[in-house]
Amino acid sequence: MRNERKTLRLMPLESDVPNAIRASGSPVFIGDAGVDYVCGTCGAALCVGMRDGDLAGLAFTCACGSANLVPIEPYADQGCGP
């Protein structure tokens, strides 16, 4: 069965993202669940095999140069988000 692909939100280039995790052409995190997080610009897989909501709030800089953010909404419904 193929994983669901979720396109990450792009962050403005002028955003200060000093703690963004840099992806260099291969997935940064690999799990065994059913969601792949992909770059909002080029579609490269940044994290594969995640559960929906895993890594919420983390920022990734793709090899293409785009800054991507994993949304926090899945946790907001459970009272765990801001």
Written account of the structure:
The protein has one helix at residues 73-76, and strands at residues 4-7, 9-10, 21-22, 29-30, 35-38, 45-50, 59-61, 67-69. The strands form two sheets. Strands 1-5-6-4 form a four-stranded mixed β-sheet, with no helix packed on it. The protein has a four-stranded mixed β-sheet with strand order 2-8-7-3, with no helix packed on it. The chain contains one helix and eight strands, in the order ββββββββα. The chain has one domain (4-72). The longest helix is centred in the C-terminal third of the chain and has 4 residues, at 73-76. The protein starts with a strand and ends in a 6-residue tail after the last helix. A hairpin with a 6-residue loop joins strand 5 (35-38) and strand 6 (45-50). Residues 75-82 have low confidence and may be disordered. By secondary structure, the chain is mainly beta.
Secondary structure: elements and pairs:
Blueprint lengths: L3 E4 L1 E2 L10 E2 L6 E2 L4 E4 L6 E6 L8 E3 L5 E3 L3 H4 L6
Parallel strand pairs: 1-5, 3-7, 4-6
Antiparallel strand pairs: 2-8, 5-6, 7-8
Features:
82 residues; mainly beta; 4-stranded mixed beta sheet; globular; disordered C terminus
Could you give the order of strands across the largest sheet?
1-5-6-4
- Domain count, please report it: 1
The secondary-structure class comes to: mainly beta
Instruction: Give the percentage of residues in beta strands.
Output: 25-35%
The overall pLDDT, averaged over residues, is 83
Number of helices: 1
The global form is globular
Distance between the ends = 34 Å
Helix percent band? under 10%
- The total strand number stands at 8
The ordered string of helix (H) and strand (E) elements is: EEEEEEEEH
Low-pLDDT runs of 5+ residues are 75-82
Radius of gyration: 12 Å
Q: Sheet bearing the most strands, described? A: 4 strands, mixed
